Amino acid sequence: MEQLQRLIGHVIDRANLHLKEPFTDVGPYVRELIPLPSFTRQGAVYAFTGHHPARYVIRESNAAGSYFLGQCVVERSVLFQTDVRGDELKCKGDTVSCSGMKVPVQDHEVIHVRNSYLVNTLVHSNCHDPGSPEVFDIRDTIAMHYANIHGSPIRGSYLGPFATVDLTSVQDSVVGTFSYVQAGELYRERVEDGCVWVRAKDKFECRYTFDRDVLERYVRFKPGGEPGGIIGDFVAQRKSDIDARFDMAEGHPDVPVPERPSVSRFAVVKGNARIGSDVLVAQRAYVEDTVMGDGSNAQENCILVGANLEGRDVTAHGGKIVFARLGKNVFVGFNSFLRGSSDHPLTIGEHSIVMPHTIADLDEAVDIPPRHLVYGYIRNRADLAANTVSLDDLSRCDGELKRGNLVFRGKGAAFVHGFEHRIEHILEANGALFASGHGMGHAQKNANISHSVVRHITEGALQGLHPAMELQA
Amino acid sequence: MEQLQRLIGHVIDRANLHLKEPFTDVGPYVRELIPLPSFTRQGAVYAFTGHHPARYVIRESNAAGSYFLGQCVVERSVLFQTDVRGDELKCKGDTVSCSGMKVPVQDHEVIHVRNSYLVNTLVHSNCHDPGSPEVFDIRDTIAMHYANIHGSPIRGSYLGPFATVDLTSVQDSVVGTFSYVQAGELYRERVEDGCVWVRAKDKFECRYTFDRDVLERYVRFKPGGEPGGIIGDFVAQRKSDIDARFDMAEGHPDVPVPERPSVSRFAVVKGNARIGSDVLVAQRAYVEDTVMGDGSNAQENCILVGANLEGRDVTAHGGKIVFARLGKNVFVGFNSFLRGSSDHPLTIGEHSIVMPHTIADLDEAVDIPPRHLVYGYIRNRADLAANTVSLDDLSRCDGELKRGNLVFRGKGAAFVHGFEHRIEHILEANGALFASGHGMGHAQKNANISHSVVRHITEGALQGLHPAMELQA
């Protein structure tokens, strides 16, 4: 495994070249993180459909248990159990808009990962930076467990566990544990742990920060280890079922075939689960004893247990919903953790929006009314009062609004309108609206998906590496 | 599947460009042979070990259910459930000998398949032609079910079902159903059906031809169909078990893991089977209720049922052994069909040699003595008398020897010595002699083999094709 160890040293060096005091060495986070034999246990999965240009290039890298769809180049990187989903990349002939100009895209967009170490990470969407229409670049970067890199080119940066960067260019920055950033760009910034931050230049800024003790209870993390705490443990308990799906790809015992073609064979669907039409269940989603109404979805790393989604509900990457009943068109943001129980159920009214990285872990039954925004940390009805605002009230805001730990500044109408517009786009992209005459989305385009599995080299000088590969349809 | 149909037309055209009256069109043999959906059912398997240079390139081709080990380039070809085993290719720095000269090999040898259609075919060994040390070329060629292309570069030719070309350069030729040729070279020749022909220029020539009615009974074949008859049916009855191993590669139910690392996970081992040490069971071998003594082997397409191999027995590619007991160091040649029964067992004494393409299908118990050569068609002890010669008697021959349908001309000693030398080489290459201090062979080198599975494209313009690929360790 000498080459593999050298590779890990290389990505540490490359990230460190960018970082500044006091955070200057990512080595302790990743050097011994994964036991070496785990790097050859699972292969890399490459998906092909007739609907997405597909080209996969990988060199001097490891991609154990990782999943690729779309165009992707990986060089001198470690992608451990990571999803690179390129089904929303721009195509040749599309246009990007910037300052009123429309510029044509010259080639099919490609996700290019270099000198990086991503563990249990999700990469999705396309490069939001109009300056780079054809390349969604991830370079010299470390992303820890269950980080989301969503439409965000990123260079020389560190993302903590459960961190999300969303539609943001990130350079030479550190984004802390369980932090969410949608800020257009970050340059040489350090985003503290547990910070949820949405900024649209000249329009609004919205920020919530978790209390340190709450964060410590839900996402405990020490360099070199796996994330623990209530959320970390909750995810870890279900990980072996997900792992089995990837082991299965290599000939191990199967579990029953999902009911719908749009349920990935790399997802877990178990117990008394009902899957409606135009539902998307992505690879590495976990669905148990759950009703997924028509047009609802569960993205990568989502966990749905004892949940009831009435229909057209969006569960963004990493969202977790336990003993909850969602009305129609509810949006649950990235990495949220919503946990009711049979004694203390959670209900969410239709068209409500759960902010990314919200924790609702109930001690009593809580009922979120329709068309409300919820955020922060909620255990009971009193917490809810401090952590919710109706979309109508928020739309009327033009200035500052403070509720609990949330500070909103700017035009509420722009925030609400932007969010609703984005949810509509997500529903359409997922194929949730196919029955009502919209075009095909992911749920339909993946119906005839095929998967190839490439194993890592198990002995010799290149042991632990993925074979050098170019694969194209 | 338009591209795939175009590809099939292309390989038909390319073969036809070489062929002469009266055999001028291979179209009826392959055009409708495989139902189109079968071309996307199984993926292609690529093996990696730390002991063989590995580079796989495939373009504009289909390789459904095929297995590759070593260096191989496939272009504009159809390889259906075909094995391309490059574990005996020459390496850079090896030398080839010719007319007393030793010439160094400049690059790792590669098997290069172009414009060809191979179905259930085995390709193995390395290019015997000293004029092409680095390329084992298979071009503009059609090979039907269970043909063996062993060390034989081949161009513009047709091989019938169960035909074997062994250490022979074949050009613009036709080799009939169940024919075996080891003749150095064939140029614009037509080898009739059921002909077993060994020729070493200036040394000896050995020829046996099956009676037409025997051949018709054992290998019945019509253009466009699968081979039938007793051997064809025998193989077909066990094919679904083999297919299941390749389906399994894509996540279908598994069968128990073989007992030894040198038993391929793409072999079938079932019933009361005992596998000794340093045994090689290659992919697509079928072993049932059989004892395989130390250092014995079963190559691709071998079927062993109720057999007892005492040790260091070689079953060459496609050999079938049913209710037979083999002493030590017995050699069973390519595609032989040896079938005793519990009432009429077959025993073969040590160091005996069963010629390639021998049929022994017993009506009474038959006991082949040690150090004998057997050939042809044997049903009882009377047949045996006409179809056997002791190696000592044969060694003394210098001139002509006729027995039954066999005609041998030349120096018997050269024939026997050459055969024994080759068997020793095969044992060593297989790793059968590892326990007695020889180097590693296939049985040992494959202990940590890993397999990648690449699926064919299931929809869109390229449906039915393998993704364009380059894969290298």
Q: Could you please describe the fold and organization of this structure?
A:
Two copies of one chain form a homodimer. With 473 residues, chain A is of the alpha/beta class. Chain A folds into two domains: 250 residues, UDP N-Acetylglucosamine Acyltransferase, domain 1 (3 Solenoid); 186 residues, UDP N-Acetylglucosamine Acyltransferase, domain 1 (3 Solenoid). In chain A, the strands form eight sheets. The first copy, chain A, has a twelve-stranded mixed sheet with strand order 45-46-24-23-20-17-14-11-6-3-1-47. An eight-stranded mixed sheet of chain A has the order 21-18-15-12-9-4-2-48, with no helix packed on it. Chain A has a seven-stranded parallel sheet with strand order 25-28-31-34-37-40-43. The two termini of chain A are 32 Å apart. About 1% of the residues of chain A have low confidence. Chains A and B meet through strand 47 and strand 48 of A and strand 47 and strand 48 of B.
CATH class of the largest domain in chain A: Mainly Beta
Main sheet specs of chain A: 12 strands, mixed
The interface involving the most residues is between: A-B, 40 and 40 residues
Q: What is the helix content of chain A?
A: 10-25%
Stated plainly, the CATH topology of the largest domain in chain A is called UDP N-Acetylglucosamine Acyltransferase, domain 1
Q: What count of domains describes the coordinates of chain A?
A: 2
What is the mean pLDDT of chain A? 95
Looking at the structure, what is the overall shape of chain A?
A: globular
What class would the helix/strand composition of chain A place it in?
alpha/beta
CATH superfamily of the largest domain in chain A: Hexapeptide repeat proteins
Distance between the termini of chain A: 32 Å
* SS elements, strand count of chain A: 48
Pfam families (chains A, B): Hexapep_loop
GO molecular function, one term (chains A, B): transferase activity
InterPro entries (chains A, B): Hexapep_loop, Trimer_LpxA-like_sf
Keywords (chains A, B): Transferase
